[in-house]
Amino acid sequence: MIEQDYLDSCIKRFKECKALGDKTFAQLDEEQLNWQPNEASNNIAMIIQHLHGNMLSRWTNFLTEDGEKLWRNRDEEFERHDLSRERLLLMWEEAWQLVLDTLASLTTDQLTQKIAIRTESLTVVDAINRQLGHYSYHIGQIVFLGKWLLNNNWQTLSIPKGDPKNLILN
After folding, report:
1. Which of 58, 77, 90, 121 could join 53 via S-S bond, C-beta 3.0 to 4.6 A?
2. InterPro entries, alphabetically (predicted)?
3. Number of domains in the chain
4. How many Å from the N-terminal Cα to the C-terminal Cα in the chain?
């Protein structure tokens, strides 16, 4: 059934996004997580703070409440707090656990149900796709910053350059 395939695929893709972040964090220390390139840019810690706030807001009572909760303070997510590595990783895990548990609890019958994010009416499918795109965007930023910080010490998260498995067959 295509609906179950969709849910399974979404769970797989969200887990892949999380794994990219996990593999990046494994290579970085606390100072690097809190390093900010300039005043106009976010550091990795801020991105984690933002994803944490977004995920808790969007996925708490996903089917029954607007995804933008009154208790969320989005602006604070982008402030420098110099949180410990341990605290940042706890926030990361807490948020992802909620996302994955919520996705696992969904039934195929709920995919066309209407929910709201910031009062915008969306189907569950559209809301899931919206969040997958949003999280991929920010995790790409995390990976980019990690790679930039580590330079030649970066351990690739995909197929390394020059690997024969990287060939494209026409």
Report:
1. 77
2. DinB/YfiT-like, DUF1572
3. 1
4. 32
- Structure confidence at residue 170 (pLDDT): 44
Closest CA to 106 of 2, 34, 11: 11
Question: For residue 32, which phi and psi values (nearest 5 degrees)?
Answer: -70, -35
> Can you tell me the distance from the alpha carbon of 130 to that of 68, in angstroms, rounded to the nearest whole number?
14
Report pTM.
Answer: 0.93
Number of Cβ atoms within 10 Å of the Cβ of 33 = 25
Structural domain including 6 reads 2-166
CATH label of the domain that carries residue 63: 1.20.120.450
Closest Cα partner for 124 from 63, 49, 74, 65?
Answer: 63
pLDDT single digits (tens) 112-124: 999 999 999 999 9
